[in-house]
Amino acid sequence: QLKFVESGGGSVQPGGSLRLSCSISGSTIDYYAFGWFRKASENDIAGISCIRSADGSTYYSDSVQGRFAIFRDREENTLSLQMNMLKPDDTGLYFCGGCDLSGLTIYGSWGQGTQVTVSS
């Protein structure tokens, strides 16, 4: 089973930037895509961005399109999320995991997450 460990969260003011990192360990053979997800509350989990392993195609939710960028380093087996022009609505627990591209939903396993807080 894959293990995901996130880092890079913190508190920033609106308009600021953060870069999240995710270390992936284990066999990725059963996963065709990876992504970042945000948990704003107990019942509110949103797909933020995913990347397809085969060709590097990227996918974003409408709320972050143009502000966030997802990267995958296959050699280091890491996943990153560059977040720019942050807004208070971006606040939440960000975690990485497998991604089902049909709906930017979680597939398989995921990490514990890293907290991002955007406030003035």
Can you characterise this structure?
With 120 residues, the protein is an all-beta fold. Helices cover 0% and strands 57% of the residues. The chain has strands at residues 3-7, 10-12, 18-25, 33-41, 44-52, 58-60, 68-73, 78-83, 92-100, 105-110, 114-118. The strands form two sheets. Strands 2, 4, 5, 6, 9, 10 and 11 form a seven-stranded mixed β-sheet that branches. It has a four-stranded antiparallel β-sheet with strand order 1-3-8-7, with no helix packed on it. β5 and β6 form a beta hairpin. It is globular, with a radius of gyration of 13 Å.
Distance between the termini: 40 Å
Portion in helices: under 10%
Spatial extent as radius of gyration: 13 Å
SS element count, helices? 0
Query: Quick one: overall form?
Result: globular
**SSE topology string:** EEEEEEEEEEE
What's the main sheet like?
7 strands, mixed
- Low-pLDDT ranges: none
Find the count of extended strands (DSSP E, 2+ residues): 11
- Give the overall pLDDT as a whole number: 94
Q: What is the beta-strand fraction?
A: over 45%
What class, by secondary structure content? mainly beta
What brief labels describe this structure?
120 residues; mainly beta; seven-stranded mixed beta sheet; globular
Quick recap:
Helices cover 0% and strands 57% of the residues. The protein has 120 residues and is an all-beta fold. Strand 4 (33-41) and strand 5 (44-52) form a beta hairpin.
